[in-house]
Design brief:
Elements lengths: L18 E3 L3 E4 L4 E4 L7 H6 L12 E3 H7 L4 H7 L1 E12 L9 E7 L14 E10 L2 E10 L1 E12 L3 H14 L3 H11 L8 H11 L10 E4 L5 E5 L14 E4 L4 H12 L6 H17 L37 H8 L1 H11 L8 H21 L7 E2 L3 H10 L26
Parallel strand pairs: 5-9, 10-13
Antiparallel strand pairs: 1-4, 2-3, 5-6, 7-8, 10-11, 11-12
């Protein structure tokens, strides 16, 4: 039979004035840094006389047991009767930067066990142990139930140090979270110009691809020079000739296989015009060229251009001086040849009547514009206008002139036969 009773007051009530020294070391391997709670200024004299006090000496590693229980908002005399568990928490919040270096422990205390008897069967902290012995040759055992206060030391640590890489990653992740990365990159590319990073060509090309100017009065103009492989996109307003305007963007020529096969088949077919028809066209072309014979304008590079009424039409077939595209055999066969143009017209409109000279000349002229545009530009994006050079325009007009002698000129809104061409009446 066992009998247990609680001694009141507690047997070790005087332990309230006992002191304990807590040694704690902490390390942060990422920063190759270690520290301990016995700070550098704490010598033997200091440790023999100091006792932890949150107000006067918060970093002293020597603690009075009664003060620990009091910091946990408990009464040592009452707690010693049934026992309990007190947590001693050591928290390290370290700033390892040189200018703002700080790495000292902060102590806090709280009770861990349940002390209310109405919420648990055995409140506080207790444990049993037995003592065996012989009395008069008989083995006997005395069972003890001990009560006490247990102190658990818990250490928490966190250290930080400034890092430019981590800062950039943090800023980038924050911007991406709020969908601001694209806005920042757009601003950087379009405003910051540096030869080693974002040149003017890259800036103009990016701007042309990224942004589209909404201007209902002026559509983007597409320009194709015979001595350049790409197509230039020029946007207004125009304060000088189109020949001298800098492109807002450039893009490669896009040709469909069907269009390429059609052009090659037309070029490979031998001419079948009669000699009388050929001589009449050549004579007519010569007469028209004499009417418009004049010195080439300053923006001309091929020597075959004529003055044009608007800045948007002042365009040569070349960027630098050289032979005119209108003098090439391909231009003659693909753009000016009457049989080629009639074949294209009848292919697109099988019931088209080409017997009337006035109407057929107009159709042939517009078909020539279409042939040139398809040959030199390929597929042009909707909403844009492909500009035919002045030299080529006048070669077409000389071969297929207007009876009234009046031409509308560049008119992107009126498109004949294809979506993007340069038409006139």
């Amino acid at each position: 039979m066992s009998f247990f009773f609680l001694p009141r007051p507690a047997i070790l009530g005087a332990a309230e004035n006992f002191t304990v020294l807590i040694k704690n070391n902490i390390g942060f391997p990422n920063f190759n840094y270690t520290n301990r709670n016995i700070l550098p200024h704490m010598n033997d004299t200091y440790l023999r006389g100091c006792v932890f006090n949150r107000t006067t000496d918060p970093y002293c590693p020597i603690f009075r047991l009664g003060d620990i229980v009091q910091e946990a908002r408990e009464n040592f005399t009452e707690m010693a009767v049934e026992g309990g568990v007190i947590a001693i928490q050591i928290n390290w919040e370290c700033n390892l930067d040189r200018l703002f270096h700080k790495c000292v422990p902060e102590y806090s205390f709280r009770r861990l066990d349940e002390k209310n008897s109405n919420k648990t069967i055995f409140p506080g902290l207790n444990f049993r142990f037995a003592r065996n012995y012989k009395q008069n040759g008989v083995e006997e055992r005395t069972l003890f139930k001990a009560y006490g206060i247990r102190f658990d030391v818990m250490v928490f640590g966190k250290a930080g140090k400034f890092s430019a890489v981590q800062l950039i990653i943090y800023i980038g992740s924050t911007l991406s979270y709020y969908a601001l990365t694209t806005v920042l990159l757009d601003w950087f590319i379009t405003t910051y110009v540096h030869p080693s990073c974002c040149s003017k060509e890259v800036k103009s090309n990016y701007t042309g691809k990224k942004y589209e100017s909404v201007d209902l009065k002026q559509s983007p103009l597409y320009v194709s020079f015979v001595d350049e492989d790409h197509i230039a996109v020029v946007k207004g307003p125009f304060r000088k000739s189109l020949q001298e305007m800098k492109p807002a963007a450039v893009q490669m020529r896009r040709l469909h296989d069907e269009s390429m096969r059609e052009c090659l088949s037309l070029l490979q077919r031998p001419p079948s015009r009669s000699k009388d028809m050929e001589m009449r066209e050549v004579r007519q072309t010569g007469e028209n060229s004499k009417e418009h014979e004049t010195n080439p304008p300053l923006w001309c590079r091929c020597g075959q251009c004529h003055p044009m009424p608007s800045l948007q039409e002042q365009l040569c077939c070349r960027r630098s001086a050289g032979h005119c595209i209108s003098t090439s055999a391909t231009f003659s066969r693909l753009v000016l040849d009457r049989q080629t143009l009639e074949s294209v017209l009848l292919y697109r409109g099988p019931l088209l009547d080409l017997s009337q000279a006035h109407t057929s000349t107009k159709w042939l002229r517009h078909c020539a514009y279409s042939q040139y545009t398809q040959w030199r530009f390929g597929d042009v994006e909707p909403g844009s206008c492909a500009v035919i050079p002045s030299c080529s325009v006048w070669k077409i007009r000389e071969r297929y002139p207007s009876v009234e002698g009046q031409y509308t000129g560049l008119c992107c809104e009126k498109r004949v036969l294809i979506k993007h061409d340069q038409g006139d009446k």
